[in-house]
Write a structure and sequence with these properties.
The structure holds 3 protein chains of 3 kinds. Chain B is mainly alpha-helical. Chain B has 7 helices and no strands. Chain C is mainly α. Classes of the chains: A mainly alpha, B mainly alpha, C mainly alpha.
Chain lengths: ~100, ~170, ~500
């Protein structure tokens, strides 16, 4: 079952990666990153069945940090919306070389 | 491992991947968020089946319950609920890149599974489930006390950051 | 499961305790007392905290021989030298951000507090020997930096930079985490020591281990902005407030390299033959891409952004050399690079007019007539980045050390050394292009009058330049310090497997 869980985790991670690379909406993109973190958590839980509970402790930490990241990330998205009136990353073109 | 829990494991796995696919193909942010919540619920089922009931509970409370609610809240606050008239996908070049990167990554991760044959041999005897919190708590508050304390500083940073970014601008 | 040895642990993480408590005091000062001068008092408290951090680290370096650390926190020369360097960088950043924010009219107490919180994460990264601590240190540093980039809330450019930085940072963190998970799965340990010994004795799950190492390297390469994972750097460095850009270019990069070296040295050493070619390619590509793309840039901050990418390439050469000499060169280079970067950015802060308008080369025109000392300091710092002999002070010896390390590695890296020298020659094109207007052209009347630079900013610019020059005359003192600062993993001499391909 550990092996199957690792496969599920890999598939979720790849779905998240493809989402990050194809979407332009900053909020949806950020949700794809959350999906990737969830995939990682599944790996940790599966592997902690193998190696003891340290993996589960790591999952708790990842969740805490994800919450902190969500707070800051969404505040940044709001800041961008205030300036640009959109959260579409392709219309953010002030910084060009 | 009884057949019943194996059956549930496959069920939740399918649910997880199906919801994730539905999430990533939705156009509007709100349906996407709801499918992501669904993914997270299904994942918490997997956690329980993998002998991590505490993590499963926290997953529902923190991820599905708190973090995703904040996402939906921001979507509503900015009135982004409807899919815009502009497509939310990058051009064909970006999609191709994503496809290639995704395929390469999946190949790498699945190739990593070679040698999995030893996995079942390594599985330790199932831990007692009479007390679900204790095994995690014991590690968290002894060996990983430092990491636990650090999360408080991370949260302080997030708190200060969110306040300072989102606070209404003062005239001063 | 042992009961934690709290007092012993507290001693090992004293700098982090000092910095985080200092951040809290700074925050409290920001909301107490008279309105006027609040942000200034907060900045002074933050500066004092950073100075305490420097003193503490130097005290540990010069005091009694260091006791062995734990499996979570290292207690070696590497940790304390880089902690001193990072605290010094943070102190300089506190002064620069305060001056810059004041000019823009947005000075507030949260900025120095967030700088200290970022510094807490950074100093932790110099010592972390457990992947949980590594992860939390990186996140603490990154989260505080995301906010610092967006601190000027009237600037759309800053908001754009911050959200791009955030999304790519979170994306790369996911890769790093997945790598950590797979390495944990393959070795059963979160601790660098445990991973190292498990890897040395032959992992039971080699596929999982390889994938984990690859993903961790991708995550770390993002953090140090190595090509091809550098794409976020120019935009973020350009849009961020100039003082924050200096902090990112100097200190955040140094901290990322600290953990990069420790992880490769302590955990992945037995796998050297596998990841060495990958890092080799990354190092070469990073040097070439950074230097070539910098040539075409008009804006000063973008030039310096690509230049910082090139420096990441030089530092990667030191990592690739993988020896005690390489680690010595890395520490030496980080000291020289931090000094030069902070000095150059101090001059840019002095020249900014308080808007988020990008600085172009014309803004430097006639600097020699307006501010002769700043012009000299700028020239010295930029020449030091170039690695120019004599006038560039310690920068020349930094590159020399990296070259020596590359050539003396257990398998000499001649090709990398040649790429390093050639790309450094190319970098002369844009570095001299930065200095030339300051000395050759006459001043252009500014659209907005630029007030006289504050004393603190001038002091930092000139102090950095002076130290660069002094260390350029006496490089052996810094070399001795750097030699004491190789991570303990290298202490036993070159233990490295000799299976590297040249």
């Amino acid at each position: 079952m550990i092996s199957e869980a690792l496969v599920v985790s890999a598939v979720l991670f790849v779905i998240g990666t493809i989402g990050v690379l194809t979407r332009k909406n900053a909020i949806v993109l950020f949700m794809c990153v959350e999906l990737m973190l969830n995939a990682v958590n599944l790996s940790f839980v599966a592997l902690s069945k193998l190696h003891g509970n340290a993996g589960q402790v790591f999952v708790i930490l990842v969740m805490t940090v994800a919450a902190a990241e969500a707070a800051i990330g969404l505040a940044l998205v709001i800041a961008v919306f205030r300036h640009f009136g959109t959260v579409d990353l392709s219309s953010l073109r002030l910084l060009k070389g | 491992m009884s057949d019943l829990s194996r059956y549930f494991f496959y069920l939740f796995s399918l649910l997880t991947i199906g919801s994730a696919l539905a999430f990533v193909t939705r156009k509007g942010p709100v349906p996407a968020a709801l499918w992501l919540v669904n993914t997270m619920f299904a994942l918490s089922g997997l956690y329980v089946l993998l002998d991590a009931p505490f993590v499963g509970a926290v997953q529902v409370l923190v991820y599905a319950g708190a973090i995703m609610v904040v996402f939906v809240f921001v979507v509503m606050l900015l009135n982004l609920g409807r899919a815009g008239d502009r497509p939310d996908l990058r051009g064909i070049g970006g999609q191709l890149t994503a496809g290639v990167v995704g395929a390469a990554l999946l190949a790498l991760l699945l190739a990593a599974r070679r040698g999995d044959a030893v996995l079942p041999a390594l599985v330790p005897s199932s831990t007692s489930t009479s007390n679900v919190v204790e095994p995690v708590a014991q590690l968290l508050f002894t060996d990983y006390l430092l990491a636990f304390e650090l999360t408080s500083i991370v949260l302080l940073t997030a708190l200060v950051g969110a306040v300072v970014l989102a606070k209404r601008r003062t005239a001063a | 499961m042992n009961a934690p040895n709290v007092s012993g642990m507290l001693m090992l993480i004293l700098p982090e305790v000092v910095l985080s408590v200092g951040a809290m005091i700074t925050l409290l000062l920001g909301v107490s007392g008279a309105d006027a001068g609040r942000s200034h008092r907060a900045a002074m408290a933050a500066l004092a905290t950073a100075v305490v951090g420097v003193v503490l680290a130097i005290g540990m370096l010069t005091g009694a021989p260091l006791a062995p650390g734990t499996t979570f926190i290292a207690n070696d020369g590497f940790r304390w030298t880089l902690t001193a360097l990072l605290c010094a960088g943070t102190g300089a950043a506190v002064v620069l951000t305060e001056a810059y924010d004041r000019r823009a009219g947005v000075a507030r107490a949260e900025t120095p507090a967030l700088l200290l919180l970022a510094a807490t994460g950074m100093t932790l990264l110099t010592a972390a020997r457990d992947l949980m601590v590594v992860f939390l240190g990186i996140e603490l540093m990154s989260l505080a930096t995301y906010v610092l980039v967006a601190m000027h809330r009237t600037s759309a450019r800053a908001a754009e930079a911050a959200v791009k930085y955030f999304l790519l940072g979170a994306f790369s963190t996911a890769f790093l985490l997945y790598g950590i998970a797979l390495v944990y799965g393959a070795t059963g340990s979160m601790q660098l020591e445990g991973i190292g010994s498990a890897v040395a004795s032959g992992a039971k799950l080699p596929g999982l281990l390889m994938a984990g190492v690859a993903l961790m390297l991708v995550g770390l390469a993002f953090k140090v902005a190595a090509a091809p994972f550098h794409l976020w750097t120019p935009d973020v460095y350009d849009g961020a407030p100039t003082a924050v850009t200096g902090f990112m270019a100097a200190s955040v990069k140094a901290a990322a390299f600290a953990i990069f070296l420790r992880i490769t040295a302590e955990a992945f050493a037995p796998l050297l033959a596998d990841w060495h070619p990958v890092l080799w390619v990354l190092a070469a590509a990073t040097m070439v891409i950074g230097n070539v793309l910098a040539l075409g840039q008009q804006q000063i901050k973008r030039v310096l952004a690509y230049s910082s990418i090139a420096h990441a390439g030089y530092l990667l050469v030191a990592v690739v050399s993988f020896s005690a000499e390489g680690a010595t060169a890395l520490v030496f280079y980080l000291v020289a690079y931090t000094l030069a970067t902070m000095g150059a950015f101090a001059v840019l802060v002095a020249l900014s007019d308080g808007t988020d308008r990008p600085l172009v080369r014309q803004d430097l025109a006639g600097l020699r007539e307006r501010h002769p000392w700043l012009a000299l300091a700028f020239a010295v710092c930029v020449l030091s980045m170039l690695g120019f002999p004599l006038a560039g002070g310690v920068g020349f010896f930094a590159k020399w050390q990296v070259l020596q390390a590359a050539l003396q590695a257990s398998v000499p890296q001649q090709t990398l050394a040649i790429v390093l020298v050639l790309s450094s020659v190319v970098s002369g094109g844009y570095y001299l292009g930065l200095i030339a207007p300051a000395f050759m052209q006459s001043p252009v009347p500014a659209a907005r009058p630029i007030p006289a630079p504050p004393t603190g900013v001038r002091a930092i610019a000139i102090a950095c330049a002076v130290v660069v020059l002094v260390l350029g005359v006496l490089p052996s003192s810094l070399t001795r310090l750097a030699q004491r600062s190789a991570p303990s993993a290298f202490a036993g001499g070159p233990t490295v497997a000799t299976t590297i391909q040249p």
